Every structure is written in structure tokens, then in C-alpha cells.
Amino acid sequence: MIVALMGYMGSGKSTIGKELATVLNYKFLDLDSVISDAEKSSISDLFKKKGEIYFRKKEAFYLNEILKSENHVVLALGGGTPCYGNNLQLLLKQSKVSTFYLKLSLPLLSSRLFKEKNDRPLISHIDSEEALTEFIGKHLFERSQYYSQAKHIIDIDGKSQQDILEAILMYLI
Ligand code: S3P
Questions:
Q1: CA 154, 109, 167: angle at the middle one, nearest 5?
Q2: Is 137 annotated as a binding residue?
Q3: CATH number of the domain located at residue range(s) 2-104+148-172 in this protein
Q4: Number of Cβ within a 10 Å radius of residue 115
Q5: Ligand 1: which of 16, 32, 44 to mutate, judged by most atoms within 8 Å of the beta carbon?
Q6: Does residue 79 line the site of ligand 1, with CB under 6 A?
Q7: Is the pLDDT of residue 173 over 90?
Q8: Best substitution site from 35, 43, 124, 141 to test ligand 1's pocket, by max atoms within 8 Å of Cβ?
Q9: Does residue 43's CB lie within 6 angstroms of at least one atom of ligand 1?
Q10: Which end of the chain is more exposed for a tag (fewer CB within 10 A), N or C?
Q11: Model ipTM?
């Protein structure tokens, strides 16, 4: 099985993914890190030097590779992964893939991301928390139609890491 975690930037896909992989005794893969390692570049630099379209091509390519060749893996997707090309269809049509949407509300996303925005090329230029909230609000609205197609939706507002893990595990065992 491959457990694929989707959700907006800052929703904790990697943090939860690592914990979940430990509990399941699975390997943990972070799609951004796979791209970053293969391209020998940070995601921010990749956006700066090669542009977003290049990044999206690599994202689709490595997602395909992982789905083809891996098993017993927890995979943290990038925030945009299910929203481009046929990535979402690919994730949904494979019976070995279980998709989860870690759903966090706009105010919580915004306050988290304002502190962590510098590593994120799509929002690093936004300099007030108010403007960031406005941007994320629109972006999340556009992306929700993709995220909400995940097999399981976990509302994570106010939940501890342990609560989130238990909620995911409930669907897996
Ligand atoms: C992106 C999210 C990022 C990374 C890239 C684009 C997005 O991943 O893939 O900066 O389009 O939402 P995280 O969700 O892990 O921050």
C-alpha cells in the first residue's frame, strides 16, 4: 500500500507522514525532497531558475515513478500535486494508493504559513499576514475541488499529532 497525504502548504503533510511511516513500519517519502534531491536544487531555487512549469513536469514525473515502483510507503505530496495534470486521477485510480486530505482551516493555515513562507516560492513575496490570508483564501477555494476528492478527509483543526495519526490509522486498519 501507498498512503498519499495531500493538503495545502503548511498542513503538516511531512510531519504527520514521518510519524505515520514509523507507526506503520513503512518508508517515508516527501515528493518535494525527491525532486530536490534528483535536481540537486532547493524547490525555491528550482522555481527561480527553471520556473514553475518545469517544476510541475518534474513533480508529475517523480510521482509517476514512485507510484510505479514503490510499495509500503507513506508519501507526502506537494500542496499543488493533486491540482495539476492527471496526478489526481493517477492517485485515485490505483487500488494500492490510499489518499488522505489533511484539511486545515484558513486562519490556521495563514498564521502557520506567515512564519514559514520564505521557503515557499508561491507565497514568499507576500509581506503582510492580511494579504497572505486573502491569497490563501482564493487559492484554497480553487484547490479544494481537488483535495476533496481524496478517499479520506481528516479535519485537523485543533487536533494533536496523536489525534491525527489515530484518525488516519482508523481507516487503514
Ligand atoms: C506547492 C507546495 C510546496 C511545493 C511547491 C509548490 C504548491 O509543497 O511543492 O512550493 O503548489 O502548493 P508543500 O505543500 O510541502 O509546502
A1: 15
A2: no
A3: 3.40.50.300
A4: 9
A5: 32
A6: yes
A7: no
A8: 43
A9: yes
A10: C
A11: 0.99
Q: Is the CB of 78 under 6 A from ligand 1?
A: yes
**Does 11 appear as a known binding residue?**
yes
18 among annotated binding-site residues? no
Per residue in 47-99, pLDDT (tens digit) is 999 999 999 999 999 999 999 999 999 999 999 999 999 999 999 999 999 99
Domain boundaries, the chain: 2-104+148-172
**Interval 98-131: pLDDT, tens:** 999 999 999 999 999 999 999 899 999 999 999 9
The response to whether residue 120 sits with its C-beta less than 6 Å from ligand 1 reads: yes
Q: Is 82 in the pocket of ligand 1 (CB under 6 A)?
A: no
% of the chain at pLDDT higher than 90: 99
